[in-house]
Amino acid sequence: MTLAAAPAVAQKIGVGQTRGGGAPEGPPIVAIHATVEDMATKKEIGIVERGGHFEVQEGQQVRLRLVAEAAGDRRRFPSTRFEVNSESRHIYVDKLNPEVGAVILTGGRPNSRGGAVPVQYEILENLNVGDDLRTGRFYLDIVPQRTQQPRPEPKPEPTPQLGVTLYSDAGYRGASTRFLASDRDLHDDAVGNDRVSSIRVDPGCTVTVFEHPNYGGVASTFTEDVYGMDGTRVGNDAVSSLRLECSTQARRGVTLYSDGYFEGVSAFFSGDVANLGATDFGNDRASSIRVDQGCEVTIFADVEFRGRYATFRDTLPLLNGTPVGNDAVSSLRVRCD
Is the pTM of this model over 0.85? Predict the structure, then answer.
């Protein structure tokens, strides 16, 4: 943008004569102000009242347009002559249009000694306006260009820690303790020793609970929630220590269900199992299978991957009619892409 430098003396801008000489036109003018438009965005950024101040940034180009407020809430945009005093190059006149009462200005150097740049106006049309309003001033305060402060980088949401929660009552009720790591002795935890009746297992976690402290005695391993410990190898009110492993990577595999249509007791398996009788799910118990996307499971009627077998890549709500049959799975192989 080429800026026209203001001369070292006051410059008058506008037509030279007041229009008409007869009776004043229109309803009486009761107030004067100017709208301020940012030329970069073409949006109105404020209003400066007669005798009022408005901030203009160094290098910012604005358009002032005079507005005459008439009685009855009517607006007029009269032809106007402007006079801009700029002896220290704090403001530059870029363009004028006195016919519509507008002038385009650009902020120059801020005044280190303070003080505003006066912009004087004179209404040229023969409006019904008193001498006290026909002429007046607006004041522009030139301020240094604001540099936009960089926005701080948003803090990443903390990754929730995975773990398990042990409960003293079945159905995830009663006293509870959440574990994010293995614990060799539960006697000093809220849930306590020999009191565990249900377990919630976060996705991606595997927990092995033991009958005795220091990971001793009978053990049971779970990858899903356990509504009640009755029927598990460890049993109810018998857990004294636990080992915990969690991974943020989603595990894939298969889930066996003791009843059809994915109901009853369930167990998740991500690898081969040579003998389901050694797991808490048990042997000859599966009635339906859920297979994760990209995985394949082969079920066998006998342990050690022997006997009748069938391979599935899709979820199966009923094992009736398959080569292995219902309540007959004793071992399985799992493969995932």
Answer: no
Burial class (CB in 10 A: 0-12, 13-18, 19+), 93: buried
Whether the per-residue pLDDT at 98 is higher than 70: the answer is: yes
Strands 216-222 and 198-201, how do they pair? unpaired
CB 333 within 8 A of CB 305: yes
Strands of the sheet containing 306-312, edge to edge, are 306-312, 295-302, 331-336
| Per-residue pLDDT tens digits for 311-333 | 999 999 999 999 999 999 999 99
User: How many CB atoms are closer than 10 A to CB 90?
Assistant: 21
Q: Which domain holds residue 123?
A: 11-143
Residue 80 C-beta-side C-alpha neighbours within 13 Å: 29
Task: Read off the pLDDT of each residue in 103-124 and give the average, rounded to a whole number.
Answer: 83
Adjacent-strand bridge partners of 106: 61, 92
Is 92 contained in some domain?
yes
Residue 144's pLDDT is 84
Q: Helices (H), strands (E): how many in the chain?
A: 1, 23
Q: Within 13 Å of residue 35, how many CA atoms lie on the same side as its CB?
A: 17
How far apart CA 179 and CA 188 sit, in angstroms, is: 13
Evaluate whether residue 6 is within a structural domain.
no
Domain count of the chain?
A: 3
Residue length, the chain?
Answer: 337
How many Å apart are CA 144 and CA 201, to the nearest integer? 60
Q: Which of 87, 117, 143 is the last residue of a domain?
A: 143
Least confident of 32-41, 158-167, 182-191, 204-213: 158-167
Cα gap 138→85, rounded to integer Å: 11
Look at residue 151 in the predicted model and tell me its pLDDT. Answer: 67
Q: 155 in a domain, yes or no?
A: no
Mean pLDDT for the stretch of residues 93-105:
84
In angstroms, the CA 48 to CA 56 distance is 12
